Amino acid sequence: MRGSFQAVLSLLFVSTSCLLADLNNELIPLTLKQMARSDRLPESAEEATLLTELALDLGLPNSEASEGWPGEALSRIALSRLASLSNSKTAKEIQSFLAEGFVSTSLEPDKPADPLWDDITRRSGEGGIQTPTNPEALLEKIKALGKIKFKVIRVENRTTHIHVEADRAGAEYSATWLTSWTNTKPAKLTNLRVKNFKTIISEGPWFHDATNTVIGRNPRFEPQVLHGIDYWARRITRIGDLSLTGHHGLAVGDANGDGLEDLYVCDGGSLPNQLYLQQADGTAKEVALDWGVAWLEDSRSALFVDLDNDGDQDLVVATIAMITFAENLNNQAFKLRGGFPGAPYPFSLSAADFDLDGDLDIYTCIYGAGDQPKKRGFEASSPTPFNDAENGGRNVLLSNLGGFQFTDVTEKVGLDQNNTRWSFSASWEDYDRDGDPDLYVANDFGRNCLYQNNNGQFSNIAKKAGVEDMAAGMSVSWGDSNRDGAPDLLIGNMFSSAGQRVSFQRDYKAGKKRMARGNTLLTASKDGFEDASIASGITNGGWAWSSGFADLNNDGWQDLVVANGYLSNSRDHDL
Ligand SMILES: [Ca+2]
Ligand SMILES: [Ca+2]
Ligand SMILES: [Ca+2]
Ligand SMILES: [Ca+2]
Question: CA–CA separation, 575 vs 569, rounded Å?
Fold first, then answer.
């Protein structure tokens, strides 16, 4: 274990010097140097203590707690009964849970199949009429759905709203069930109504995992790539800057100018970033060390962009030490040109020519404020209040001055308005079609920003435009989802069943209720933006992080891709 750690540390390391090359230029010259092993060994055993648990205080009670939350008790009972129903082998086992006169709709009515594409079809609708159902019939219906999982998303009097997902060979089923329970001990199920269901039927898988085929032969694949964060958390000390939340982005671009897209992959602190060059046979060769970009700093985001307009793809990487800028040298290597240290704890990068002077400028989202060497993220400061926090980090717009010189113009151009929120992600689009790029910023723990560009000066018009989407904003992308010519907004937000239950019980105001609702789709028209999230069925994307529009099947309609998931415990009914 220790051997791999030291081997990693003996690779290249970025160091800084404080010489300013130019008064306007705010990049610091950087050099590469060999790092001595002793540079980063922990000062004491205490400092080497691993961060084993992330405590994220959302201001909501623990979902397991029932004190003061009567609905939570019924929620747990419902979950346990439903698990018994799906696990039972004989009708006799479930008889004790069913009230006399139990009624149920069909769980998966035989609706006509709508074609989606190729041989993939969808059946959807409501459950229909409730009829008396005996235990044998109920068990048969449940078994027919396949491997089944439940989440309680709302408790209303004695009725629990259940999100159901099930899969079997060739089909995936998802539904909302309303289940009502007697107020007796033990609580018994009086009726089960399928409010809506959707079954996607497909002969074969839609995607194949090509990871091993494409990058599996690289020397670092087994020792580095194949291991997850839990493996590295036990081997890299805190002083190695390994972030356990795994926010490491990647960039796609043609680094060597051969017409094939290549990949730069960011990794956690003490693990070198990787550069994969696509080969003619479809595999990819890892060359980061030879190309001078195997940096070890915890890296959050990267961009391949042509910063000097010479036709090749330069590289920008947001590390926790600084934003680094590297020039592409004849499609053969990168040369470090400087680093911007004024953006600590970055989460994402985006590029646009905001001032229309012909070169690309760089915007960086900064999440938390108060970053310190030994305390980062939520350890250094927490968002308050959790639904409208303004105590986050300061996002930065760096204007490209040419010749790999950049200057911080955030304040000068008006982007300092509402600029202390917990920003994860930003996306540029000329949404008002006046010729200049405008900027949407997705913020965790509160309101998002839409900065309208007016001749290089920005105003946050999110409130006026109705696009604040006060929630746990993780990601944003622009795309024309309804093909009316106006760009719409997709915002990745967390969907939390526990959060939905407690916000409903306490009758939280709309602003707080939205915190756990899930993804948001805001469609634009000449009359402004409209919230189409629920109508379009996109809210439940799990605990969403990165998301984006992509026309996956080339039918001219934008599909959505959402990356989701979070640290979880071993409960097997956790979706
Ligand atoms: Ca290439
Ligand atoms: Ca270039
Ligand atoms: Ca514009
Ligand atoms: Ca499509």
Answer: 11
Amino acid found at 410: T
Q: What is the pLDDT of residues 143-187, one digit of tens each?
A: 999 999 999 999 998 999 999 999 999 999 999 999 999 999 889
Rounded CA separation 34/309 (Å): 32
Helices (H), 17-108: 70-87, 91-95
Predicted confidence band of residue 85 (pLDDT cuts 50, 70, 90) = confident
pLDDT band at 248 (very low <50, low <70, confident <90, very high): very high
Whole-number Å distance, alpha carbon 481 to ligand 4 midpoint, is 10
Distance (angstroms) between ligand 3 centre and the Cα of 461 equals 12
Consecutive H or E run containing 116: strand 114-117
DSSP β-ladder status, 98-104 and 189-201? parallel
Q: Summarize pLDDT for 200-227 with one digit per residue, the tens.
A: 999 888 899 999 999 999 999 999 999 9
Cis bond leading into 132, ω under 30°? no
Mind listing the pLDDT tens digit for each residue in 429-453?
Answer: 999 999 999 999 999 999 999 999 9
What is the distance between the alpha carbons of residues 191 and 99, in angstroms, rounded to a whole number? 8
pTM (two decimals): 0.85
Measured distance CA(98)–CA(181) in Å, rounded: 9
Kindly identify the ligand whose nearest atom is closest to the C-alpha of 308: 2
- Rounded distance from Cα 349 to ligand 3 centre (Å): 20
Cα–Cα distance measured from residue 34 to residue 442, given in angstroms and rounded to the nearest whole number: 38
Q: Can the peptide bond before residue 186 be classed as cis, meaning omega within 30 degrees of 0?
A: yes
Gap from CA of 263 to ligand 1 centroid (Å): 9
The CA 432 to ligand 2 mean position distance, Å, reads 30
Closest-CA residue to 545 (of 522, 561, 523) = 561
pLDDT for 508: 63
How far is ligand 1, taken at its centre, from the CA of residue 351, in Å?
21
- Contact by Cβ (8 Å): 243, 268: yes
CA distance 294 to 12: 7
